[in-house]
Design a protein that fits this description.
By secondary structure, this protein is an alpha/beta fold. The chain has three helices and eight strands; from the N terminus they run βββαββαβαββ. Helix content is 23%, strand content 38%.
Length: 151
């Protein structure tokens, strides 16, 4: 799995002009599943998102997690994160999991985040979404779960 994670003051998702989800201080996580990913990668991603220290503590260092600050996470499924742009002009999405395989993995990330105690909201899987955010910092990281073992 791959995620682009941004520390935000606020973030929101709209579908067809209507609000779907909105958070205050926390993380916006754009999450994509790769072919071959499974429950282990989803669990790894949720643990990383919940515990990654992206917020400043009293000394001004990034030593607080979203759990530490009582923040929220907005998870938005985004298969385009798996696009390969090394050749040609059109991204190649063959590394991305199919929608049927990706949906339960993204749902597993969200479910695990909630079980860890993180207030978690989502966009709508496979919908055309308008995502707005106020990036705080900016602080943006790319996360990539360990690859699944070969079959």
């Amino acid at each position: 799995m791959r995620a682009v994670v941004q520390r935000v003051r606020r973030a929101a998702v709209e579908v067809e002009g209507r609000p779907v989800a909105a958070i205050g201080r926390g993380l916006l996580a754009l999450v994509g599943a790769a072919r071959g990913d499974g429950p282990a990668q989803a669990a790894w991603m949720a643990e990383k998102l919940a515990h990654l220290r992206m917020f400043e503590g009293p000394a001004g260092r990034l030593d607080r997690s979203v759990l530490d600050i009582g923040g929220e996470i907005l998870v938005v499924s985004q298969f385009t994160l798996l696009g390969d742009t090394r050749k040609g002009r059109r991204p190649d999405f063959t590394a991305a999991a199919s929608a049927e395989a990706a949906r339960p993995l993204v749902d597993a990330v969200v479910d695990k985040l909630r079980r860890l105690g993180v207030q978690t909201l989502t966009g709508i899987f496979q919908a055309h979404m308008v995502v707005s955010l106020e990036n705080d910092g900016p602080v943006t990281l790319i996360l990539e779960s360990p690859a699944p073992p070969p079959a």
